[in-house]
Predict the structure.
Amino acid sequence: TTTTTTTESSLILVRHRYFQLFLFRCRFMEGEIEVVEATVASKKEEGAGEESSQQLQQEEIGRFEMEGLIQTFFKCNRFIVVGASVNRDKFGNKVVRALQESYGKESVIPVNPKGGLIEGVESSESVDDALSRCEDVSKVGASLITKPSITEAAVKKLVDGGVTNVWTQPGAESSEAHEYAKANNVNMIDDGSCILRKLGIPEPKTY
């Protein structure tokens, strides 16, 4: 009887130890899984960080290049404003006045299909007419405050007429106009930059 009891006790002890080893192995495996998952997550974060860094770098390069295009635009000495307005509350009028304030009244050619005087200057009824008033189109900058559908047609006429500096104001952007301008090596500013802010004249003078 004593031998039987001792044997049973030994078996129970062995089973208990096996059970402990089993639990330890399970915990160890769980730990391994957690480590692997943490490593994978870390690598994913690192990859995302690298992609984010590259994206920010590209955005910085894009902004730098756009600033260069803007400075080139401001080196022009004659400006065509497509979408000019007689209404001084409208952006199409403020752009005319801001350019007049910066470069002189006669340096700006407003374009409005109705014609007439805009800020003391006879406006052109079409882009073609405005281009005919420019002696050297290589020194002309064109600013557009138009609907995208009008922007597309206007940019094609400007580019075909020899204008190499075009700025579509916020809301006037057109992907077709962008592609056409870039295909013809035109300096195209259409990143949402506002000419009034870049000139430092948020509220132009009233003449």
In short: Residues 2-73 form the longest helix (72 residues). The CA atoms of residues 84 and 90 lie 9 Å apart. Strands lie at 78-82, 108-111, 117-118, 121-122, 140-144, 165-168, 187-189.
